[in-house]
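Hey, resending since the last one bounced:
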Amino acid sequence: MDDENAKVSANTEPSVPPASDPGGEEDPKVEIDLNRIFADEETDLNELFQDEEMRKLLKKINRNKNDLEKMKDRFVETFGEDQSEEEEQPEEEPSE
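The structure tokens again:
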């Protein structure tokens, strides 16, 4: 029986990528153009943030922000706008 379990575990691939996997990041040799990512900004972001690590961080932050907006939209579609509107409205205090 141990041989069967060993064969099954050897043939299955993990569904989660290993921690050492960069997770589909682009080629590190390609320079990140912050002006394309943040097109609405008037300032030259490439000049402002010349450090490559900072550019990677800003790109990841922007990607995470976009992902959160998508998740929020899906949540509203799934559960309806009524719940999200109720939470945003301040409670009125009773007047005497």
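Residues 26-85 form one domain.

Sorry for the duplicate.
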